[in-house]
């Protein structure tokens, strides 16, 4: 796993949670691709039972090419909301040879993790809160802290880190990411939860100044329906 940031490789199991629309799926897909490209045996679980637009299962061709084991809440129904969880999820939780990324969609996704809190608590795992400062519901440190504590209570698991993924889709600028970095640091001071990285589209990542946490360059894999 040479060349990968410690936050990405330190734990066998990573779950991404946060307010709806913060870009958890994009971060999850990029994490899985980065691990696979480094030769790591990788799995990605799409447990989004809320958002019909951005779903990692829409990129199964990509996962196949990269050798990423993929588990979905409804693998055969790309355009449907099916609130069911695959039995294969237990394999990802228990197979110590896999580095698994869990894409937990929307606020209610924390309840998904709540069902598996005992299994997850016994694993080498981390829960990461994905923060987008351009989302009004988490645009202040106080609002973000409230969301973090509520999600922790619902899932019964502590948050291990904050991912700054501030963006405005195709209109994102470096200033947006720096705004998110400042907010993430405020939230970190308020909660005691460290900022683990700043996600930025690859071309923007190259323009950012040095930050306290590493920059995670990402590619945009997830498209809106009208962009496909």
Describe the structure.
The radius of gyration is 16 Å and the shape is globular. α5 packs parallel to α7 and α7 packs across α8. Strands 3-2-4-1-5-6-7-8 form an eight-stranded parallel beta sheet, with helices on both faces. Helix content is 35%, strand content 18%.
Summarize the structure.
With 228 residues, the chain is of the alpha/beta class. Helices cover 35% and strands 18% of the residues.
Known CATH architecture? 3-Layer(aba) Sandwich
Sheet bearing the most strands, described? 8 strands, parallel
C-alpha termini separation: 33 Å
Mean pLDDT: 86
SSE string: HEHEHEHEHHEHEHEHE
Q: Any idea of the CATH class?
A: Alpha Beta
Helix content: 25-40%
Question: CATH H level: which superfamily?
Answer: P-loop containing nucleotide triphosphate hydrolases
State Rg. Answer: 16 Å
Total helical elements: 9
Q: Which fold name fills CATH's third level, the topology? A: Rossmann fold
Indicate the proportion of strand residues: 15-25%
Overall, the morphology is globular
Q: Which class best fits the helix and strand makeup? A: alpha/beta
Number of strands: 8
Sheet with the most strands: spatial strand order: 3-2-4-1-5-6-7-8
Question: Could you name the key traits of this structure?
Answer:
Rossmann fold, 228 residues, eight-stranded parallel beta sheet, 35% helix, alpha/beta
């Amino acid at each position: 796993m040479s060349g990968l940031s410690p936050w990405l490789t330190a734990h066998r199991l990573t779950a991404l949670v946060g307010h709806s629309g913060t870009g958890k799926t994009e971060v999850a897909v990029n994490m899985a691709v980065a691990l696979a490209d480094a030769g790591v045996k990788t799995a990605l679980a799409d447990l989004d039972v809320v958002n019909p637009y951005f779903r990692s299962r829409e990129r199964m061709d990509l996962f196949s090419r990269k050798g990423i084991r993929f588990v979905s809440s409804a693998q055969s129904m790309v355009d449907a909301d099916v609130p069911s969880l695959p039995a294969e999820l237990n394999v990802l939780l228990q197979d110590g040879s896999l580095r698994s990324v869990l894409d937990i969609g929307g606020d209610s996704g924390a309840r998904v993790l709540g069902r598996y809190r005992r299994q997850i608590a016994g694993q080498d795992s981390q829960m990461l809160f994905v923060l987008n400062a351009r989302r009004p519901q988490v645009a202040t440190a106080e609002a973000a802290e409230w969301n973090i504590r509520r999600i922790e209570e619902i899932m019964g698991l502590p948050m291990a880190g904050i991912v700054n993924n501030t963006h405005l889709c195709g209109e994102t600028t470096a200033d947006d990411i720096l705004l998110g970095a400042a907010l993430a640091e405020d939230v970190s001071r308020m909660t005691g939860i460290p900022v683990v990285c700043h996600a930025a589209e690859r071309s923007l990542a190259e323009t950012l100044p040095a930050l306290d946490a590493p920059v995670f360059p990402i590619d945009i894999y997830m498209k809106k329906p009208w962009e496909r």
